[in-house]
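Exercise (ungraded).
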Amino acid sequence: MAIAAETTRTSALGEQNLAKRRFGDRAFKWLTLLMALSVFVLIVLTGYQLAHGSQLALHKFGWRFLTSSDWDPVNEQFGALPFIFGTLVSSFLALLIAVPLSVATAVFLTELAPQWVRQPLTIFIELLAAVPSVILGLWGIFVMVPWLREHLFPALKSTLGFLPLFQGPIYGVSMLAGGIIIAIMIVPIITSVSREILRSVPGLQREAAYALGATRWEVTRIAVLSYAKKGLFGAVILGLGRALGETMAVTMVIGNRPEIAKSLFAPGYTLASVVANEFTEATTDIYLHSLFEIGLVLLGVTVLVNGLAQLLLKTFGGPGVKPQQ
Amino acid sequence: MQVLTFTCALLVVAPLVLVFYHLVYSGIGAVSWDFFTKLPKPVGETGGGMANAIVGTFILLSIAALIGVPIGVLGGVYLSEYGSSKLNWWIRFWADVLNGVPSIIWGMVVYALVVLPMKGFSAWAGGIVLGMMMIPLIMRTTEEVLQLVPNGYREAALALGIAQWRTIVQIVVRTALKGIVTGVLLALARVAGETAPLLFTAFGNRFWNHNLSDPIAALPLQIFSYAISPYEDWHRQAWAGALVLLLLITAINVSVRVLTRDRFHK
């Protein structure tokens, strides 16, 4: 009797425990799921808020907003073309400078450098990635721009001055200065992602090329770089995504003038910097809504570019390719 | 070719060396006791410090951590421990895309969500925007370190009859705790230097702020407004502020790297 009672008691206890555990398991799973889904909430919220905030401008200007180069808060005429132009040109310049440097550095780090150099150099580049934009901008204003004005730009003008790109007055703050500062900001990202990509190229690939009698350069070119093409392209696109949205450093050196100029020495303006500069000054509703629409354009472009980069990197795969922060 | 790539590597490293050099050269003179303890002086008077901005940055980071850490860590737990691979793929994908969204856009969103309804710039808004930026960062790093925990640990705990959620909390998360903390610290270091999203959320303040519903100063904001000002003394202080901020961020980065040389990191 006593034993039977004991067993029923324990089994009841067990069931109770089981129910409790099931509840705990389920509750915890739902809690974590909810938190994970916050990612979707954030992206939807962002899109919605920007679209909602730009209603007036969307309504009033329509597609003309993207093709008009009027930016006249006084007469309430707004067009984003000078900013789109500035963002594209400065990002393009940045890629032009950053891509060869970053890929070469990644090759140096994975294929050529002596072992003892690799680790410290990698850490150093990661530290460069951690320098805040505003600090680089400060350095840009007081060190880089004066140097460009005194040395690099006059030299460019006297050697390449026959091109319209390098004509006109030199102010220092300019589209080219913006491009250079963005290049400095995206080099660490492209370098470290490219490095991960190159590291994930199988060693067999290299050995096979060596066995065929290829030189070191040929091994790198044929066996490594062409194998990793897709991944490297992903790294570059990721860098482009950062370049398009770079804000503070660019704002401080690009000159902030909404004009479409032929010369790279002329000041420019980007989507991100016009928001940074004018958002708190926007006095009328239509002005504020136009800035929100600029944000919407920027969001659309960066989501597309980053999505493409992630697809490229994820399909290139390899366990060595870590997500980039 | 070795020479060529080496030259490129040098060119990549050069800006960091130059930035460090100029920060120390121009900033060290203005880093003084006053800098850490005094409020900014009115325009035209020299001296004063950035005490309020330094405290402000820490307040903003605390609010951000309150939002970003629980959501990010629990989300990371879901990605690592539960979920269908398809849903997880999409969550990862969007988290990575969110990491690439320009920070200024977050600022606009929080302006619409928090600043407009509260009818003013505030420390809350600044903290919320930084916290939102931390969520995808922490989620991804947490997932990564949790996946480094050997499966045997989970199986052993479950075989002992421990509930799954307690296995996760008490065995898996605890084993990977160091890595999770690392991820959180790196995320904090990343948002500590953010300026763009604070421009129209925290807004900045030249005085002490004891009310989180009022605008608050932050180190990056102060550096920005001093850098673009026309005053020589403010430029000096901008350099000093930048030096302090960069030292703070570098200190976190370096100490994290030293701390994590354990078995879960190659």
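Further reading is listed at the end of the chapter. For now, observe: The radius of gyration of chain A is 27 Å. Chain A touches chain B through 91 residues (CB under 8 Å).
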